[in-house]
């Protein structure tokens, strides 16, 4: 979420839309966007049902549209809009994903020259197969218009942002509504008395030189254009009447802008039977979607609706009341609006002791996200996991994959490593007796990329599969050269990690319907090289307890420096002790704090450096106390020689504590300008920067004050990570 999120106005023309409007408004309110920056304006054409009351209940501003038409309603709403961006949605639209607005606004800001952002029309479980055919497969929602329209050209792809343009010498691609996002400044020439004919507005902008527009991959609206044939024919009648009314007033239509085929030929095609059958079979072969079989029937129905509309116009003439009366009333039954409760199985066999790994924590938060989104979240794992989940208050089923928890042992020794492998094998084989619970319509999430989680997820019957890549294993070359600080001289643990991760990722890649969440931007290219499609991988933060950090009270600064971590050579412990000694010599009243169970290993080094009186040890602390102690400190020192992400850095930043760190490759893609970087392993430089930050913070200066810290916290919060996981579940549901 952007710190300076601009105000956005949703503009909705309505007329007797009570049967479907709530669905649209609820999807707007579910957006992961500051609620105070969202404005909903409903321009109502005199509804005789509960449309106005429903709109008001959802916080919309309801305006009168005396001319009653949809185009005039858009003009009324636009005249009252105050947002920097405006989104035109109809009552039969539903925003497809909670991050639709964030992604759309970010795309338009990245490409200010684009004329706007067009939504994809995506299928929904609430849709009939006929509606899927009209909205997702045709996109234009009508066979005649589909044949007449030209095919837009994709210019380039920038991550999830797609750049599109018109083909040469034609603007016959209708767009401008159903989730289309404009900059309000681009529409400033329109007045309240104008009819907002969206296709004509877009065409004028294109003719003026702005031919490109944007889309965001797999983001848009569910367009409930029609539930069945009768509904479709009535809509075609009204659309034809509307088209003829505009032509009678001299308005320009996209059908006059060099269409692919003339209207008469498109109508002849529709009644020919052979043409529609050919395209139905071609669409079925290309997409495998049987909804294409509606095409011959819909083609004939389209001509019937068009003929009915022409006759109605001929009988009644230019009567705007007639057009209003022709608007069909649509309904989504309440049972369809309510979310369907489906099972999501979380396979988590990695937890063996009291310590909580990144995969364990991530898995718990994703399960909570699924549960809160209406899914039935269930775990398969061992007794150690069960104890952790019970302490967390997890309210879901847990199937045990081991008979008991092993007593504590030292996993750092070679014997301990083999004992740990045996423990993993116990839970791995114990998982198989629970796989029969998992049905084809369920979801399964391997909470780590290790074999003992991924293999059961891959071979189970669930068709929708997810996993997490939380840390890149060293490459085989790095292992052989011992080219990474986390590769030990024995190399065996690193070889195991490398083999496990690579085999797991390649197994998951072979699954048809999958999503792989990855936590560091640098991982993306590796996954693409392995054969994953861009739509199958989702970047999301490691996740931080921002809420707990914000709740921690602001206290007086007691410590000049703070550190938290484990005592390991890759953590730069020797550099840390030398830096603390330098600061103790520089500042006569210097105080530092070491957080965690590190005193036994770290205290001898501190005493040998002669600074025992200046350094305190907190011992084990709760999450709340950890953040309180961060806030009681001036500078966080991070002398690690290797990190895959640096979660404790994020936690320190969440508390507003400046961070001094070596310029490791992992940091900048995540933290950007939020750290004070020192060239790698330049110990003198580390001393100078740490000293400078202590002096500045003692003087009341903090470089974080000039940065978008609130935006960083939101982007890396568990709330944002949870939303991405739920979005992945929704994506898989639509794909299947």
Structural write-up:
Helices cover 43% and strands 15% of the residues. By secondary structure, it is α/β, with parallel strands linked by helices. The protein folds into 3 domains: 8-335, Alpha-Beta Complex (Spore Coat Polysaccharide Biosynthesis Protein SpsA, Chain A); 346-543 and 720-735, Rossmann fold (3-Layer(aba) Sandwich), CATH 3.40.50.2000; 548-715, 3-Layer(aba) Sandwich (Rossmann fold). The strands form 5 sheets. A 7-stranded parallel sheet has the order 14-13-12-15-16-17-18, with helices on both faces. The longest helix has 22 residues, at 295-316. The protein is elongated.
Main attributes of the structure:
736 residues, alpha/beta, Spore Coat Polysaccharide Biosynthesis Protein SpsA, Chain A, Rossmann fold, 3 domains, 6-stranded parallel beta sheet, 43% helix, elongated
